[in-house]
Amino acid sequence: MSTADFDLLVIGSGPAGQKAAIQAAKAGRRVALVESDRRLGGACVYRGTIPTKTLRESALRILQLRRHQELFDCTLKPGQEMAALVSNLQTVTGAHHAFIQAQLQRNGVVCLHGRASFLASDRVQVEGLRGDRSVYRVTQVIIATGSRPRQADGVPVDHEHILDSDSVLSMLYLPESLVVLGGGIIASEYASVFASLGVKVTMIDRYPRPLGFMDGEIVGRFLRAFRAAGGEFIGPAQVEEVRWDGISRVLTRLADGREFAADKLLSAAGRVANVDGLNLAAARLELTPSGHIAVNAACQTTVPDIYAVGDVIGPPALASASMEQGRRASAHAL
What we know:
It contains 8 helices and 17 strands. By secondary structure, the chain is of the alpha/beta class.
């Protein structure tokens, strides 16, 4: 066990954590950033924003070609490899990791590789990959641990046939058909992108329309474009059962008796805060009924010297908003 001191310790290297750490470092504070993944950047870089936008760019290019079919043959071959559609993803994410690492080093942020957990509100333990543990005394902490896909009841995600938003891009081949459960941002984005790629997409939600928080006219335009691409939206509907038939199809049965069969199924039931293992009780922190960390306008928790930013505090859970929350929390802590 070793002991060190930092003015600010940031847990998580996603957009919120990066900006929080750099903001404090530029003010001359002693700052450490803890990341459990081998790469910096968080889910935004490797499972969220950048991968989905890479796939979206491929879909947009194909749509452009289809508008000029008399000049180009742009039909995707059956069993198109997913890797070909996101061929530059590894290059993009690798460059992003190198950029983040260089930026943190340039600003004097100490990067700690391991899993963080609270021993008290002012003491954080970091456990390394080999089980070595270090305890750090800290003046202030910013929690920026992000989120992970919510597991919907009755949907047995196996990451091969029944997927969540973290595993959907791990498919080897583009499916011919896809059922998407959910009507939020993630569900709508993937449903529209795959429909644009020529996949037969059926989107099922418990509400009468997707993206219920948005203006009705905008949602109507989204649905018209989605249907024009060959997609189908079904709602309101209650999913009764989801199962893999053991051969080639995922079967979805609704409460009204309707059944749907598809090559793959994506469960997009929202996301939950990544707080497992943080030992929040030792820091005198509790979660809200929705499973997030409650904060005030400055992203300060009920413990004055502990802040929380990004997906871990709930909506809007967007990279741009998370960056601003990280800066705001860090500035307030200063």
